[in-house]
Amino acid sequence: MTELEKIKRAKMYMDKLANGINPLDDTVVPDEDIVNQVRLSRCFFFVSDVLRQVIENGGTKPNTVGKNYPKLPLNVSLEQRNRFVYSEIPITASEIAKRVNALVNEENRQKLTYDDISAWLIEIGMLEFTSALDGERTRRPTESGIKNGISIEERTGNAGIYHVVVYNTAAQHFMIDNLDAILAVKHERAEMRGAPWTKEQDDCLIALYEKSLPMSEIAMALKRSISAVRSRLKRLGVLDAQ
Q1: Are 73 and 155 in contact (CB under 8 A)?
Q2: Cα separation of 161 and 203, whole Å?
Q3: pLDDT tens by residue, the chain, 242 residues
Q4: What span, in angstroms and rounded, lies between the C-alpha atoms of 112 and 46?
């Protein structure tokens, strides 16, 4: 066996361990096993990615100059928040996130996104998923959200009329005042990436899927990525059964 083949086998072992699989017999590792601890799982994913880079580089360590390293969590100081430019006309969550990111403007920091804001608003009951007349699932403000300055605005684009959720000045103030809570949800979602799935999460995943909810909605409810949701459903045999 060549050195490159050994590295490929090592990566295969890391991939299986990261996903809770015993690489020796391909059996599922019990949830309570130390292998499924979050910190170890992340280490396995990290080592696997390093080995991937070595394999892609022909079996030698790649030059790391100019490579992208994991970005630091977003942190917005009080002084930076005081510089946020509030809009007198309602703006979208994407625009709010853009203005927050402009306050920090550090390339090595994570960015606030539309999904981060939406996830928090859904968690506190100011946004919800509803079905439109065409059956499409979309986000809409709840009664609580409307009271706090969230509304629906009709716009016209190349594809015709569409609707967007917008936030007035009061809603913008509300979100900046609660930015720590939004960032906490963002960081929690980031922590869930690569974390082992529990039986309770599997049961919830299957239940949500059987309700025919969109993958994006399931992912937000479980604080997972869409790709992680799809991968887990396949592993559980749910997608293959359809």
Answers
A1: no
A2: 39
A3: 678 788 888 888 888 887 778 888 777 777 667 777 767 777 887 888 788 878 777 766 666 544 555 678 888 999 999 999 999 999 999 999 999 999 997 877 889 998 889 989 988 999 988 876 666 678 899 999 999 999 999 988 777 888 899 999 999 999 999 999 999 888 887 777 667 888 888 888 888 888 888 777 787 778 777 777 888 888 888 876 44
A4: 24
Is the pTM value of this prediction over 0.85? no
Encoding tokens for residue 78?
């009080």
* Overall size of the chain counted in residues: 242
- Give the SS3 label for residue 166: strand
DSSP, res 200? H
3-state secondary structure labels for all residues of the chain: CCHHHHHHHHHHHHHHHHCCECCCCCCECCCCCHHHCHHHHHHHHHHHHHHHHHHHCCCCCCCCCCCCCCCECCCCCHHHHCCCCCCCCCECHHHHHHHHHHHHCCCCECCCCHHHHHHHHHHCCCEEEEECCCCCEEEEECHHHHHCCEEEEEEEECCEEEEEEEECHHHHHHHHHCHHHHHHHHHHHHHHCCCCCCHHHHHHHHHHHHCCCCHHHHHHHHCCCHHHHHHHHHHCCCCCCC
